Amino acid sequence: MINRRHAITSGLTLAALAALPTAALADTLPPAIGRDERLRRLDKARGLMRQNGIGVVVIEPGSSLDYFTGVQWWRSERITAALIFASGDPVIVTPFFEKPSVSQTLGIPASVRTWNEDESPIALMASIIRERRAAGAVGIEETVRFFINDGLGKALPGTKLVSANPVVRGCRMIKSASELALMQAASDITIAAIGATMTQVRVGMTPDDINAILTREHQSRGGSGGDGLVLLGEAAAYPHGSHAPQHVAEREIILIDVGCTVHGYQSDISRSYVLGGPTPDQQKVFDQVRRGQQIAMTTARVGVAAGAVDDAVRHQYEAWGYGPGYALPGTSHRTGHGIGMDGHEPVNLVHGEATKLAAGMCFSNEPGIYVPGKFGIRVEDCFHITAAGPKWFSIPQETLAYSG
Description:
By secondary structure, this protein is an alpha+beta fold. The chain is built from 13 helices and 20 strands. Strands 4-3-2-1-5-6 form a six-stranded mixed β-sheet, sandwiched between helices. Strands 8-9-12-20 form a four-stranded mixed β-sheet, with helices on one face. Strands 7-10-11 form a three-stranded antiparallel β-sheet.
């Protein structure tokens, strides 16, 4: 009997992966993040707030709100936000008629304060901050909209507004064992879904045809989403695609860039294939991309600046005649990006990024090579940093050819 973990990490063929029972993945998903872990996150956030002189952090709906409170909501002109204080329970501010719905996903001890249609939510937030006598600056989470930031500044004259990055990034960039398990599950599902999809790809198919299969195969295995970017032939030379008509053809690149979500955590994997076997030029570029991935993994160690990973890859690519820098032909984008609850989150593996790598950080590794007018090849796998070195969530592909 094939063990699921062995099958996914040992380089079995796509056909073998596709044959794995879908229930084997869907029925063994790790549990969602619970109350105890969110409480630990809040404790860590409070410690970072005290270290950085921040008395309260303001967070709007999105992944950071879910991360700290469990509240899953959306942004509109009607403000819903969390106020996380350096001491005491958080406060959720929301419209009066939304309180029951917002409270349904609240996963921590917190009070919910409401405002009516003829009242100012920003004035309410300011009054709560004054009531709590929050000592220190007001930290603004980096995705909070300007009108809230500006309004709080006017409503709290004399109070310093600062970036909450030292707190929010300080928590979210370092993944716990539970988070890593969810990301691993999402990666497992995506690898299996790509394998199952490729067994169904035929000459003449369009990107939409392939994407529909990808979505179905992800969702049948327990992953949410699952639609991705599918680039065929010359379109693969442009990292984020082309509007030109595309169809699967023999000896042309099929580039799939896709991921899914498991209990709020993301996967992001790219694969490049050629039906009928690659040309010598395609094989050469594929081998170089694989080497680029290996260089990134060799460089990514605790204490190394994130930008140094990109620099190491780019140095080798320039030695092969690509670039210089981000010029084409070559890699016109960074080597990788952070990943977690968002498919792209801080920080990036890009030239000039000084953030030091630490255990628990997670990144994509995707130093593709793109030759405009001809083709591009991207192989993308994600990894996380450990004290002993980086560890793959998915094992990179070893061959460009696909024969079914």
